[in-house]
## 1
Amino acid sequence: MKTLDRYILKSFLIPFLATFFIILFVLVMQALWLAFDNFAGKGISVGIILKFLWYTTLIVAPQALPIGVLLSSIMTLGSLSENYEFAAAKSAGVSLQRMVRPIVFLAIFLSGINFLFLNYVYPYAMLKQLNMKVNIKKKQPAIALVAGGFNTEIPNFQIKFKEKYGEEDNLLKEVMIYDLSSKKGNNKIITAKKGEILSEDGSRYMTLILKDGYYFEHHEKVGMPFKEREKMAASYADFEKYTINIDISSFNDDDIDDLKYTKNFNMLSLKQLNDTLPTLKRDYDAFVSSRAKNLFLSIDIEDLHQYPDSLINKELSLNILDNFDLKEKRNILSIATSKLERTINNNNSNKETLKNKRKYLNLYDIEFYNRVAFSLSCLLLFFIGAPLGSIIRKGGMGMPMILAICIYVLYFFSNTFGRNLAEESSLTAIFGSWLSVFLMLPLAITLTVRATKDKGLFDVNSFFAPIQNFVKNLFSKKEKNAT
C-alpha cells in the first residue's frame, strides 16, 4: 500500500470510527428509552437489561454503518479540500479518482460487512430480543396487559381496560373481564370502574383488585339445549371491592431465553426467506382460489353453452324476464337480490382476511429484497458524501453533520415510504424495497460528475447565462432595426 493510500484511509477511518460509535450509542439509547416503561420498576435484573441492550446494538448496527460512512466521507473529503490537499495532489498529477480509490474499496468492503450483518447477525438478534420481550411479559403479567383491547395471554381470562397508569403502571380504568375458568364460554362477566394489579416476583398468583363494579353470571350446564339455556337463571350483583386471584404458575416455568417464535419475517436469513416464500405464495393462491370458487357456487353461476339454432325456441324473448309473469318476475328479482346481498356481505367479511394474508406475504417479500438493497446503502451514500465533501470544502462536525442528517433522513424516509407502499400492495415488493436507491442514485451520479469536473454544487452562472444571452440578442436586434 502506498503512502498516499495509507494517509487517505487514516483520514477516513478516524472520523468513521468516532461517528459510527456515537451514532450507534444514540440509536441504542433511543431504543432503550422507548422500552424504558417496560423495564422501570418491574423487578427486572440488570443482567437482562444488558442482554436486551446487546441485542439492540446488533439490530441497529446496520443502520448506524451507512450514517457513519456518509458523515465521515463528507468530513474527510471536506477537510482535504479545505486544507488544499486536493489542490496539491492535482498539481502533482494525482486525480480525485486516484485519491479516493482506497476509500471506494473500503466502502465496498463495508457494504459487504453490512450485508453479512443483515443476513446473519440481524435475524439472530431479532429472534433473541423478541422472544426475550415475550418471556419478560410472561414473568411480569402486568407488563403483558395492554390497554384498548382484550388481553388473552393470561390463562382462563380475557381482560380489557381503557387505561393503565400509576407509578408501577399497575392501576387500571374501566375494566371488563371474561372469566373462562368454568370452560362454559363467556358466561361470567365482571366490570369495574377501577382496578389494581398486585404480583410478587416468583409468586404463582397475580391478584386483581376491582373497585366499584358489577358481576354477572349466566348459569347453565354443559350440553344443555339452546332453548333450555335461555330459561336458566342468572346472577347479578354490584360490589365496592372484588378480589380475583389468578394462577400464573405456568408463566414462571418459562425461561427468559426460551425461543417460541422463530418464523417471523425479520428472524430469517435470505436463504430461509427464499425457502419460505414459495409456501406462503401457494397458501395465498389457494385461499384466493377457494374464495373464487365459493363466489361462483354462492350465486349459482353455470357455464354457458352454445346450442344449434334448431334447438332454440323462437317464441322465447331474448330478455329473460319477459318470459315470466309479474309474480314470477318479483320472485326471481327477490331471489337474485338476496343472493347478491349475501354474496356482497360474504365478500366484505372476507376482505379484511384477504388483505391481512396479502400483507403478511408482502412482509416476507419486502424483507427479502430490502436486505440486499439496504446493504448497498454504504456504497450509495459514500458516492453522495464523498463528492459533496469535496464540493463544499468544509471539514469538522458542523456543516457535514447537517448535510449528513438531511441526506440520510431523505434516504431513510424514501426507504420507509417504499416499504409501506409495497406492504399495502400499492407497489411491487422489489420496487418498494429499491425505491430509495432509485431516488438517490441520480443524486450520487450528479454529485460525482460535478466533483470530478471540479464544479460547484450549484453553478449559478450556467443557469442565468442563457437568459442573459437572450436579453442581449433581443436588444441588439432592436438596435439594428432602429438604425
## 2
Amino acid sequence: MLKKSRSLKAAFIGAVSALALSASVANAEMLELEKEELKFGFIKLTDMAPLAVAYEKGFFEDEGLFVTVEPQANWKVLLDRVIDGELDGAHMLAGQPLGATIGFGTQSHIITAFSMDLNGNAITVSNDIWDKMKPHIPKQADGKPVHPIKADALKPVIEEFKDEGKPFNMGMVFPVSTHNYELRYWLAAGGIHPGFYSETDISGQIQADALLSVTPPPQMPATMEAGTIYGYCVGEPWNQQAVFKGIGVPVVTDYEIWKDNPEKVFGVSNKWAEENPNTHLAVVKAMIRAAMWLDENNNANRKEAVEILSRSEYVGADAEVIANSMTGTFEYEKGDKRDVPDFNVFFRYNATYPYYSDATWYLTQMRRWGQITEAKPDSWYHDIAKKVYRPDIYLKAAKMLVDEGKAKAKDFPFDNDGFREPQTHFIDNIVYNGRTPNAYLEKFSIGLKGKQQVKGTEVADAK
C-alpha cells in the first residue's frame, strides 16, 4: 500500500503555492531542487520512524518535497529497487550500502548521509529453549534473571542438540544485516561458532554450531512458533510480538551487546546523489528534523509516534506492542518489563551522524565471518567507509537547519573527523577502535584474522 504526500504538486498553484511555501522561506531560501516528487521504501519495523514522522509532521513538505513512502517485501527487493531507480531512496540496514558497494551480493555504489537510529534489536528464543537456558542463568534476589544474558547459557543447549544429531537453527534478516552481525557477535562471545562464509559457499554455515538463515522480520514469530527456527535476531516490534503471543522470550537486546550501536541508515545510489545534490540535502534536512522530534523533551512525542507507526501503511502492529519498546521499556520474559530508556534512540548521542568508525565496524564483521574473503589493510577499510558514509553531506544539511533556526549547533559534531573514540561497551568487554580494524580483529578467539581464508570447510593462512 502506498502512503502519498498529503499535498500533490498540482495543488501548489497560484495563491495555494504561496501559502504553502511561506513558512518554509520565512527563515531561508528554498533549495533549488532537481527533483521534487520522490518515492522512498521501507521495511515494516519501528526504526523506519524518521521516514513516517518526516512525512506525517510535514517536514518533507517544508523542504518542497512531495513524497510517497512504500513498504517493501524484503531487504533484497528494497535494495534492488533503489539500484534500478524505482525508489529514490530507502530505510536500509547499516551494512547494506557497504555490502553493495564492495560487491557482496548485488554490486552497486550506495551511499548514506543519514543514520536513522541507534539500538532497537533483540535476540529472542522459543519458550522451550528458554526453559533449557534458565538453569544456566544467574538470578537476582527476586528470582528474575541477571541481565545481560550471555550466550554462555545457550551453549549447553546447543551441545545437547549436537549430541542428539539435531541442527540448531536461528533466524536473522539478511546476510549483511546488523542482526546477522549482532547475533554472531553474541553467539561467539559465548563460545558458540556461528559459521563462516566463503567464495564458494555463501550460506554462512561453514563450521557452524548454530545454523543462521534469513527470515523476513514480520515472519520471525510465526517461523519460530512453527519450530523451523529456535530463535532469532530482529528489530521491533517482532521481539515484543513473541512475548505478547506467548511463544518466546527476548533474552538480550543489542543495546546490551553493543551499547548505542548504529542500526539503520537512509540509503541512496551514488548516481542519484550526484544527479540530485540539493534534493538529497533537502531529504536529509527533513529527516534530521524528524529524528529531533522523536527524541525531544525526553521522548515526549513517542506516544504519538507509536500511534503513527501502528497504522497499517507503516508497521501495522498493535500500538501496545510497539509502545512496549518505543516508550522506554522492554519486556523480556512475560511480566518482566524493565526500563530501557535508550532501546530506541533517534537523535541524541549524535545518532543521525554517519560515522566512518561505524562503517568500519561492519566491515570488520564482514571480514571476521568470511564475507570479505581476503586480508585487507587498514587503509582499505577506511577508504570504503569514506566512499559509502557521507558525514560531509550530513553536516551541510545540519548547518542549513542551524542557520534557519530549526536546530542548535551544539547538537551536531561539526568538529568530528568521522571517528568515535574507542568504544568499550560490548558484551565481551573487547574494546573497538575504528582506526585500527586489523588489530581489533586479532582480539577475537572465533573468527578470521590476518591472512586467514576459508577454503572448502577449513581455515588456512593464505600463501
## 3
Amino acid sequence: MTDTGTPSAHPAPPGCPAHEDAVPLAGLEYQQTPSQLYRELRREHGPVAPVLLDGGIPAWLVLGYPEVTYVTRHDELFARDSRRWNQWANIPPDWPLLPFVGYQPSVLFTEGEEHRRRAGVITHALEGVDQFGLARDCRLIADRLIAGFAGSGQAELMTGYAHALPMRAVVQMCGMPTAGADTQQLVDDLRISLDAAEGDDPVAAYGRVGERLRQLVKDKRADPGPDVTSRMLLHPAELTDEEIVQDLISVIAAAQQPTANWICNTLRLLLTDERFAVNVSGGRLSVGEALNEALWLDTPTQNFIGRWAVRDTQLGGRHIRAGDCVVLGLAAANTDPQIWPESHVGAENSAHLSFSHGEHRCPYPAPLLADVMARTAVETLLEQLPDLVLAVEPGELRWRPSIWMRGLVSLPVAFTPVVR
C-alpha cells in the first residue's frame, strides 16, 4: 500500500460524509513517525478517529486496544465483505488501495461458515509444514545469502537478506522454484501490491500475481507434491482452483513482506538499543526478546483495512454508520497507554495484535512459521557475523513511506570480512 501527496492534497470527494476534522493518513511526517500521529489522534479524537484514505475517502481508524479487540471479536457488527462499503461510488478504478478492499473470492473476504471452511484448508496446509525442516531450510537459505556478502565487510540487509530469506522460504513452502525470473517477478509484484512506491501500479501488479499463481495451481493439480499448494488442492473441502489462487495470494503476501519487515525491524532494534548490545552476538534470549518487542513497537503491519459495519452501531463513543469502513490500527493498539500506562512494553508479553485477533486473525500455525523464519534469520546472521554494526548513524535510517507497513528502506551494516 502507498501514501501519496500531503494532507492538504486530499479533500473529501463531493458527497462524502467525512467529518470536518478527519485526518488524512498521509504525509512524510506521519510515514516516518507514525507513533506521533497515533498519539495526536488519540488525544484529539479518543480511541476511534475519523480519517481520510488515499483520495480523501473517509474511514474510521481504531486506535484503542480494547476497541480493536472488540471489532475483531464481533463479526456480526464489523464484517469482512467489502461489498457493504457505502463509498464505492467514490472509488476510482485505479485507486491504490483497491487490491485490498475490492471484493475477491478470497478467505480474507469470506464470513461465517464459508470463512471457517476456507481458513480450515489453509490451517491444514500450513500444519503440514515441518517446523524443524523449515528452520533447516531457512538456515541453508541464510547461509547462501550471507556467503554472498560476507567477504566484503559490508551489506545492505533489507534487500540482500531480510527480504530475500522469507521470499525464498515461502515460495519453497508453496512448491515454487526458489530461483528464476518468474519467481522474482512474483515477489516484486507482491512488494508493489503491498507497498507501492511512486510510479508503481499496484492494481496491475496484483493482477500479475494472480496470473503466476494460477499457473502454479494448474501445475500442482497435474503433479502434486509435499507443499502447501498441493495440500490445499487435495483437501476434502475441494476448493476450486480460483479459490486456491486467491487464498494463496493471502498466504504468500501475509508471510513474505511482513516477515521481512519483522526481521529487519528486529535487527535494527538489536543494533541500536544498548539493552541488547551487550549480548547481541549469540544471546538467544536477547534475540527472542527483540523479536517480540519489535512486534509491539514496530509491528510490520501497522494498519489493516478493513472491516465494514453491518449496521449502525457505536464504537469508542463514535456513531458508526452501516457500510462505514473501519481500519484496524494494530500499531496504535499495541502502544495504547491503557495497557502500557508507563510507556514500557514488556518484551515477555505476547498479547500484541500484530497477527490481528479474532476469527480473521492469521490462521494457526502461520505465526509460528513466521517466528521460525524470523528467528532463524536473525540468529544465523549474528552467529556468522558477530561484530555486526550499523554502517550509518541510527538517525539516518529511513522508514518506507507507508502508513500501512512498517519497514526500513535499507539497513546498511559493516563487519569484519569473512573469507570462506
